[in-house]
Design goal:
517 residues; Rossmann fold; UDP-N-acetylmuramoyl-L-alanine:D-glutamate ligase; Protein-Tyrosine Phosphatase, Chain A; nine-stranded mixed sheet; six-stranded mixed sheet; globular
């Protein structure tokens, strides 16, 4: 790619609110949400001397305990319960001057809409952390930021490990669970922050200034939250703005390259691609089963630097994991990490639960739990890794469509079993684009023509639905088959979380193995 547009941007929203010595004291602030990031925001603002009101729609035991803690550190008022969600509260009788919002709060929610209509700045906890910077006397960290539809947590986890193996003090934070505010308030400080950013967080972030930024991939997701795919894309694209050294994009997905080309970056910033194929100049990629770097070395026009081998991943090296590793390696190399640190991180990596997780192998059949595949793009990454698949799928579709996914993976499918209270959209796509593949389930919950088995798959009892799905899969198995539970949908119609759905699958497979033995 050619030269990127150069940015000299500074914050336009309350530009004076930068640094620990900025005029935070007495600032009237509303924090929406008392989750992990909301608690950190309220705690930090109180420490800075701001007058803070916290609003949260739930009123559970943990929220009340957190509220008691915040009162002890000086938070003015905590409003718990749905009755407080209709109107933006006053702060000690006066209008708020700033709102810091948690990722779950949609732009069309009443409080956010009212704040914006009144000209009150709405910031994310992430931007608050960037504006503050490290605690006085602590190290100033390099910000390495990651977003994408899928693979964010894997990438920042790998990135953290690469940096630590390089001898840097680093932490994975952001949407991964540790608030960025907690990281920047560390008394010692960090050499680098590996920051996972969701589209929700980026929606409320005006401007960061990272050393390096990456968009892993982009596919239709969270359309119901953002209002359109265009708005979702725009939120993700914010991550590249004002990047200092390297904008890292997926060379196998043109849209991410386009996002880099459109970004205003700092002078000297480079566009760095990653690909699971052979890399071009200024890219990272794969050559002869080796992960190589043709971006962060002086003689990149004629040489490639070996970073790791596919064998370093162990018995399974799924394409999406290799891609995420290359993205993490690009970020780590931008931060000065040595190749040896990258290989060590790959060799030590253990995939998290519920992400292409082997749970059993018997009679030459592999059972895989990928409950974390909550959208079509994530499910496609799993399905590409296997052939002869018995696919367990379905759940809440979140406004996405399945046609593109089914068109791609139809040749791999031998049977599909649909759970979920309404997987009719997925079933319809299968009937159109994979007409030769047998499909069980997917009818509406109130469809009176369903069999008892199909009613079980569509019922609200998720554990029963999963046991039924596993039992149906077991009826059609043959050697070399893979039973893959990759739902391509959210879980909340039948389960408390994707983790609960994954555990239900693991337990159902374990029961099946016990019965067969």
């Amino acid at each position: 790619m050619g030269d990127l547009p150069v940015s000299d941007r500074q914050p336009q929203i309350r530009p004076e609110l930068r640094g620990w010595d900025a005029p935070w004291s007495g600032l009237r602030a509303v924090v929406t949400g008392l989750g992990v990031s909301g608690f950190a925001a309220a705690d930090t603002l109180a420490e800075l001397g701001a007058r803070v009101v916290v609003v949260d729609g739930s009123d559970g035991r943990k929220k009340r305990r957190d509220a008691d803690t915040l009162r002890l550190v000086g938070v003015s008022e905590i409003l718990l319960g749905e009755e407080h969600l209709a109107e933006l509260p006053l702060v000690e009788g006066e209008p708020a001057e700033i709102v810091v919002t948690s990722p779950g709060w949609r732009p069309d929610s009443a409080l956010i809409h009212q704040a914006r209509a009144a000209g009150i700045p709405v910031l994310s906890e992430v931007e608050l952390a960037w504006r503050l910077g490290p605690r006085p006397g602590a190290k100033t960290p390099k910000w390495l930021v990651v977003t994408g539809t899928n693979g964010k947590t894997t990438t920042v986890t790998l990135l953290e490990s690469m940096l630590i193996h390089d001898g840097q003090r680093a932490i994975a934070c952001g949407n991964i669970g540790v608030p960025v505010l907690d990281a920047i308030r560390d008394p010692e400080g960090y050499d680098a922050l590996a920051v996972e950013l969701s589209s929700f967080q980026l929606e409320y972030t005006e401007l960061l200034s990272p050393l390096a930024s990456a968009v892993l991939n982009l596919a239709e997701d969270h359309v119901d939250w953002h209002g359109s795919f265009a708005e979702y894309r725009a939120a993700k694209a914010k991550i590249y703005e004002n990047t200092e050294l390297a904008c890292i994009y997926n060379a196998d997905q043109q849209v991410t390259e386009d996002m880099v080309a459109e970004a205003d970056v700092q002078e000297g910033c480079r566009a760095i691609g990653f690909t699971t194929g052979a890399p071009g100049l200024s890219m990272l990629g794969v050559v002869d089963d080796l992960l190589v770097d043709r971006a962060f070395l002086d003689n990149r026009a004629h040489q490639a630097l070996e970073l790791a081998g596919l064998e370093d991943f162990g018995p399974l090296a799924p394409q999406h994991l290799v891609a995420n590793t290359l993205a993490a390696a690009a970020l780590a190399r931008a931060a000065g990490a040595a190749p040896e640190a990258i290989r060590a991180a790959v060799q030590g990596y253990e995939a998290g639960d519920h992400r292409i997780q082997p749970v059993a192998k018997a009679d030459d059949v592999l059972w895989i739990n990928d409950s974390k595949a909550t959208n079509p793009h994530a499910a496609a990454a799993s399905l590409r890794s296997f052939t002869d698949v018995i696919w367990i799928a379905g759940g809440l579709p979140k406004g996405v469509v399945y046609d593109e996914l089914i068109q791609e993976i139809a040749p791999r499918l031998r049977q599909v079993i649909l759970i979920g209270t309404d997987s009719s959209q997925l079933r319809s796509s299968l009937e159109r684009h994979a007409p030769g593949v047998p499909v069980i389930g997917g009818q509406l919950r109130d469809d009176e023509s369903r069999s008892e088995m199909e009613a079980s798959l569509a019922g609200e009892d998720g554990v029963r639905a999963m046991r039924t799905a596993v039992a149906e899969a077991a009826k059609v198995l043959a050697p070399h088959h893979t039973v893959l539970m990759a739902p391509a949908a959210a879980s909340m119609d039948q389960f408390a979380s994707y983790a609960a759905r994954g555990e239900a699958f693991i337990e159902a497979v374990a029961e099946l193995m016990t019965d067969r033995s």
